[in-house]
Amino acid sequence: MTTAPDDPHVLLGAFVLGGLSDEDHGAFTEHLRSCQACKDELGQVSGLPRLLDLAGPGGGPYITGETEPGAPGPLGGGPGSSVGSWAGSSMGSSTGWSMGSSMGSPQGSPQLAHLLDEAARQRRRTRRWLAAAAAAAAVLLFAAGAWVGPRLGTTSPSATHYTAAAASGSAAKVDIALVTRGWGTQVDIACTNMPTTGQLLLWVVDAQGTARPVASWRATEADYTTVTGATALSPEQISRVEVRTDTGTVIATATT
To answer: Average pLDDT per run of 10 along the chain, which is 256 residues long?
Structure first.
């Protein structure tokens, strides 16, 4: 039996049934030394050859010498094998079993090929089923994550709103929202009548008078602008929010 060397796991069935060439047998034996998955699976199916010896073509006990046309006989021999055939009460046997006088001629090769083909087909069916199940599970998990993920933090965060007062000479109108977050405060502003050139900055000032920049953006000719900043300070630690130009000129201020 020859199998692609890059997938030694598929040799397991043939290894158990004794259908490997010397080369493949040696390669798979070496593979077993380092593959725990194959060791575990081998432990689960190691009794398969004995069960096959006791099984007929239909998968049950081989109790008759009659088989369907084209179906292989019992593993290890034909009607004259040591497995025997069911003689029935007409033979006068107290046990109902008539044992053959000889082992008969082996039919190993056709039977083994049939068994290996069946094992391969079963493995392919199992793999297709597992692949389909895994794909379905992945789709369900992805859908569940997409549905649940955004809802993990669905509790509306606490927000406090303020309206900033425009500085002298400024026509800016700025609405401010301080949103409580686990990491600090999210600072959202919506503003109109802002300067149309230069760079603008959003600052927060704590009770000690320390100012920290929390956002910056380039001025545009748009009449309405929204900006979001962030600070490690909690809302209670913020005493003032200011919008400034890049030269430090205060455009609007809100006292919290």
So the answer is: 59 77 83 84 70 54 45 43 36 37 44 73 79 75 59 67 95 96 96 94 97 95 91 96 96 96
Let me know if 229 is exposed, middle or buried by CB neighbors in 10 A (0-12, 13-18, 19+): buried
**Per the structure block, which two tokens stand in for 107?**
């039919």
**Domain edge (last residue) among 115, 149, 183:** 149
- What phi and psi, each to the nearest 5 degrees, are found at residue 209? 90, 5
Last residue of a domain, one of 149, 177, 192: 149
Chain Cα centroid distance, residue 193: 51
> Residue 17 domain-assigned?
yes
What region does 36 belong to: left with phi over 0, alpha with psi -120 to 50, or beta? alpha
Query: How far apart, in whole angstroms, are the C-alpha atoms of residue 6 and residue 9?
Result: 9
Residues 177, 59 share a domain: no
Residue holding tokens 């209670």? 236
Q: What is the pTM of this model?
A: 0.42
